[in-house]
Design brief:
There is one protein chain. This protein is an alpha+beta fold. The strands form 2 sheets. An 8-stranded antiparallel sheet has the order 5-7-6-1-2-3-4-8. Strands 9-10 form a two-stranded antiparallel sheet. A hairpin with a 3-residue loop joins strand 6 and strand 7. The longest helix is centred in the last third of the chain and has 21 residues. The site of zinc ion (ZN) has 7 residues, from loops.
Length: 265
């Protein structure tokens, strides 16, 4: 599953390629032929991301809504157009480049009302300047669910994936099992600010980088994160514990991120 920064990076890239251009839209694989025909030969007015959802806007108000899910992938190619590789659900051809999208979970045309309904279901996106973190804070403050689950729930707060979740909570010294409602407001503000900080670095560098003073370039993955998939805490030297959160592996330093007191029966 791509984390939010990769989708935002694709949106910015595709915006640069397509905004203002009339696009040839097709479905080489055939499963999206009807939707493609509706958008074909229309001018793209912009591309943006809401969480992990990609939105291509077209003149007249219709949008192409794409969610890659676990297995979807995007390929950008220079023109002249090469043959499609694999089952290309939708091909967008601009003036200089094309984009092929294979295997998305969602690929549909929405009108403005349909788009509003989708956006309303997505939590505030840490990478969007217009995000309202209060929407996330008020849901977290009312929830007994652990903060590790809440911040990766895209309807609570959008953009954070599995690696960022582990890294942000470690950086903030918060155990992932801490119930949302037990966290002080200042802690929520720190989580939000750190998520914005780290995901913006992710978009800029096209890589997950969660240590401060990371060497430039992409470097080796292990040199760019603090505790994800590691055995020893870089802050205290203690052993990192592996835990499971919603069937995804996560990591915690029991010393730096004290477990919440057990709830009284
Ligand atoms: Zn530690």
């Amino acid at each position: 599953m791509p984390e939010g920064h990769t989708i935002h990076r694709a949106a910015r890239d595709h915006h640069r390629l397509f905004a203002g251009s009339v696009l040839a839209v097709s479905s080489p694989q055939g499963r999206f032929s009807e939707g493609a025909a509706r958008l074909d030969e229309r001018r793209c007015t912009g591309v943006e991301a809401f969480g992990k959802h990609l939105i291509y806007r077209f003149e007249g108000g219709d949008v192409l809504h794409v969610h890659l899910g676990l297995f979807g992938r995007i390929r950008k190619r220079r023109l002249p157009a090469p043959d499609p590789v694999g089952a290309v659900r939708v091909r967008l051809v601009g003036d200089t480049h094309l984009v092929d999208i294979n295997g998305p979970t969602i690929c549909e045309v929405l009108d403005p009302d349909g788009l509003s309904a989708v956006v309303a279901r997505i939590g505030p996106d840490v990478l969007r300047a217009d995000a309202d973190p209060e929407r996330a804070f008020s849901r977290i403050a009312r929830s007994r669910t652990g903060i590790g689950r809440l911040i990766m729930n895209q309807s609570v707060m959008a953009g954070i994936g599995n690696i960022y979740r582990t890294e942000i909570l470690w950086r903030q010294g918060i155990h992932p099992d801490t119930p949302g409602r037990d966290l002080p407001r200042a802690a929520l503000e720190r989580i939000w600010a750190d998520a914005v900080h780290l995901l913006e670095i992710g978009v800029r560098r096209n890589a997950i980088v969660t240590i401060d003073d990371a060497p430039p370039g992409k470097g080796r993955y292990r040199e760019r994160v603090n505790i994800f998939n590691k055995d020893v805490c870089p802050a205290c030297g203690g052993a990192i514990a592996r835990i499971e959160l919603d069937a995804r592996r996560a990591f915690v330093c029991p010393a730096c991120q004290p477990a919440p007191a057990a709830a009284p029966d």
